[in-house]
């Protein structure tokens, strides 16, 4: 290592990384400087002559101490962001070291086999059809896009239209049905795919944000032609999961394609205690989820899974004369994802699944739910604090003083306090604090300290 040009750089980066991780559990969670301060430190004109690499790393590390939000902190509860599990981070370092373009087997047999195995493990863990196609993408946005591209191909193929060759111009109209509470990434995917959002037929949801199966049944009875239905496992605000078994029966009756956006809620299938919440998800035709949320692998990593592998592959694959693509059992990732050049993001997934095993993954998921319930219990005991949702997974919606302004001021005050970090939302017309617990390292003490910090801010405003 001492004779390698990489040695000094990697040693310096290693030292900075360990220092950052060492301080992570106790540091102020929010960033401590604004854009202007960071620009003053980092935004100089491009130098004419380069600087020593170690010095560049030092500059970045110094600003990271004050300019990053500690998203990997065990007291970060914003946006359903997981931390980086130690073996996942270490595996990700190896991915950078190997620097493999994971597009096709011939470039990296190792990555192809690792991702093939990780895909098989995930289907088994979620108990989804084992013949499904699986692709590792950047996140649930692209996982939803990939699954809905396969859905578009599948429903049009069944009536004799090749959308990959002919496009949508002149194609039979496809009915798109989604919950009134569907995530924004569904709308964005539909835009990317040429469907647009105005044509989406919205199904009424209940008080917890679950699609109403009775309303879906009524709507489906009025539709003719190819249809794609988008359901949800894990409402982004409440964590509630749609009644998937009922929805699955309705879509099958009408020959529709059912897609499930399970960014974090699909992981309930990994827990024997929570599995019932996602009962019937196996009836769907496609599923999207994230690994960088509850599995706690580093950003970025989403997973697209499609029951009909032939539709999945037809919607994604590309060929060219210069490529050396397999015709055998080997896996070419380009057949399953929108990208060609891509990071070997399935490697940290493999490492984390193997290191945790079934029992460890189950414990990881259940811990997050336990900590969410703990925080909800502490907060709800305070006069003037109301929990707006049934805490079924890892999401807690909190309202303060039954007042929008007070609630928003508590959120801002907590972010400035720095003990923990969380965000706000609007739920059924009301401002609410949104707590998402998905970090592998969040302990009972972390949850308790964070809940008390929230109450301290509220009491200060009230007093």
UniProtKB/TrEMBL annotation:
One of its GO terms (molecular function) is transaminase activity. Its cofactor is pyridoxal 5'-phosphate. It comes from the Bacteria. The keyword Transferase applies. InterPro entries: Aromatic_deC (IPR010977), PyrdxlP-dep_de-COase (IPR002129), PyrdxlP-dep_Trfase (IPR015424), PyrdxlP-dep_Trfase_major (IPR015421), PyrdxlP-dep_Trfase_small (IPR015422). Keywords: Aminotransferase, Decarboxylase, Lyase, Pyridoxal phosphate, Transferase. SUPFAM superfamilies: PLP-dependent transferases (SSF53383). The keyword Lyase applies. Belongs to the group II decarboxylase family. This is Aspartate aminotransferase family protein. It comes from Lysobacter niastensis.
């Amino acid at each position: 290592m001492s004779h390698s040009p990489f040695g000094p750089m990697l040693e310096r980066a290693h030292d900075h990384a360990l220092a950052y991780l060492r301080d992570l559990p106790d540091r102020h969670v929010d960033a401590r400087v604004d854009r202007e301060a960071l620009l003053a430190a980092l935004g100089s004109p491009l130098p004419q002559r380069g600087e020593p690499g170690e010095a560049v790393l030092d500059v970045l590390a110094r600003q990271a101490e004050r300019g990053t939000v500690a998203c990997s902190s065990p007291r970060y509860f914003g946006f359903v962001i997981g931390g980086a599990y130690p073996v996942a981070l270490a595996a990700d370092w190896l991915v950078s070291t190997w620097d493999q373009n994971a597009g096709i087997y011939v470039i990296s047999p190792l990555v192809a086999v690792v991702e093939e195995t990780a895909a098989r493990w995930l289907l088994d863990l979620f108990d989804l059809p084992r013949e499904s196609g699986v692709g590792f993408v950047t996140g649930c946005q692209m996982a939803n896009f990939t699954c809905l591209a396969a859905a578009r191909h599948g429903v049009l193929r069944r009536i004799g239209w090749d959308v990959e060759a002919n496009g949508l111009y002149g194609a039979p109209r496809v009915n798109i049905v989604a919950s009134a509470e569907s995530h924004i990434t569904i709308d964005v995917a539909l835009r990317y795919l040429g469907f647009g959002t105005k044509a989406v037929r919205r199904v009424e949801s209940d008080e917890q944000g679950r699609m109403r199966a009775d309303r879906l049944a009524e709507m489906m009875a009025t539709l003719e032609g190819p249809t794609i239905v988008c359901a949800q496992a894990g409402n982004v605000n409440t964590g509630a999961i749609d009644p998937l078994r009922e929805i699955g029966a309705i879509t099958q009756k009408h020959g529709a394609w059912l897609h499930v956006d399970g960014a974090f809620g699909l992981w309930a299938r990994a827990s024997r205690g929570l599995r019932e919440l996602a009962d019937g998800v196996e009836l769907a035709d496609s599923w999207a989820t994230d690994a960088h949320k509850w599995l706690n692998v580093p950003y970025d990593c989403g997973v697209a899974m499609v029951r009909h592998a032939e539709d999945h592959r037809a919607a994604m694959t590309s060929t060219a004369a210069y490529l050396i693509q397999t015709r055998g059992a080997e896996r070419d990732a380009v057949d399953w994802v929108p990208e060609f050049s891509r990071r070997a993001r399935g490697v940290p997934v493999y490492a984390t699944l193997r290191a945790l095993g079934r029992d460890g993954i189950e414990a990881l998921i259940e811990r997050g739910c336990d900590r969410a319930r703990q925080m909800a219990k502490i907060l709800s005991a305070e006069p003037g604090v109301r929990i707006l949702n049934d805490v079924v997974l890892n999401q807690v919606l909190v309202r303060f003083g039954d007042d929008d302004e007070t609630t928003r001021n508590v959120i801002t005050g907590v972010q400035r306090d720095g003990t923990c970090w969380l965000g706000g939302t609007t739920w059924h017309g009301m401002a609410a604090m949104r707590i998402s617990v998905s970090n592998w390292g969040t302990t009972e003490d972390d949850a308790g300290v964070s809940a008390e910090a929230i109450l301290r801010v509220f009491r200060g405003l009230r007093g």
